[in-house]
Amino acid sequence: MQTIRADQVGSLLRPPELRQARERFLAGQLERDALTELEDRAITVALERQRSAGIDVYTDGEFRRAAYMTVVTDAIEGFSASEAGPRLAWRADPGREVPPEVASFTLPVVSDRLRPRRRIAAHEAAFLQAQAPGPFKVTLPSPTHFSPRCFRPGVTDRAYASPSEMTRDLATILAEEAAYLAREGVGYLQVDSPTYSAWLDRAAAQEQGPTSAQRLAEAIAADNAIIEAAQAGGAVTALHICRGNASGAWLTSGGYEPIAEQVFGELRCDRLLLEYDTERAGGFEPLRLVPAPKLVVLGLVSTKYGQLESRDQLLRRIEAASAFVPVERLALSPQCGFASNFRGNPLTEEEQWRKLELVASVAREVWG
Description:
Elements: H1 16-26, H2 32-53, H3 70-75, E1 76-84, H4 100-103, E2 108-116, H5 122-131, E3 137-141, H6 163-183, E4 188-193, H7 202-207, H8 211-232, E5 236-241, H9 257-266, E6 271-275, E7 295-301, H10 311-321, E8 330-334, H11 349-367
Parallel strand pairs: 3-4, 4-5, 5-6, 6-7, 7-8
Antiparallel strand pairs: 1-2
Helix pairs in contact: 1-2, 2-11, 6-8
């Protein structure tokens, strides 16, 4: 696969009719076949818009998912919809509020041994193989997104002795899916992990106590299991470190320095997609710890608002990052998806496409 310079994280804004259809489906007012037909049509249109934007790799926008992680909870038995996990501490920029549906969102608790009821992303991949005009990616959520959030003492420990055991089990399931996808022709597989951002605030990480280092090592091992399975099948692999992305809200701030040496060095992915859209991400200095030949995808374009970034500023920031990683090991993308859940972030579809066009145009200028 040719080196991808104009990348994207995965999700795209759903058109209004698809958002409405998802609401009806969740309310039991629309059959799955009818929703799938609408998804197929919307993905076909989105693929053409991506081609027009000039982006180097295609996605289905995660249009078949209510949220990026539900591809797991929909396909794997053992999650209990009647048992809700803890709420996350979402935050919003000054002048904005965290939407109620984001503030109240919880993941289901694991109440039984996890076992696949069907393939996780086979249908997504098959449609992209048939319809994408060029290289495409499929995304899978990190196992540690669900652990320990989905582990509740008195419920989950009837099936798993610890969150660590649950993580290993889920990593095995996701690694098997990654292996299938790669063998079936998926050329680019990405693991999405918001977990690592919990260690970006050094003080918060220290407060987690002596188990913090063990949990970080477990997270890396779980993600590497998926990455290595995909690589064995011939796929290019990436890991996206997310800082929280839901309807414009976010979760964590802090530079990458506290985790850079261990995470950048020990993750075996080919590409790291790192969010650098705001000052909350700190400087580029930690990139000096990314070992060759690993490539860094700079998430410089925000998906959280519609204002278009300055082209000159993007070029200056790429140049600044190249002081720590050679420019031939850099690429460009938005900082995250445009719709980590089906309701999407607070910008319009046209603003989204202009941002992707900007990513593609700047990438062509820098890398040819």
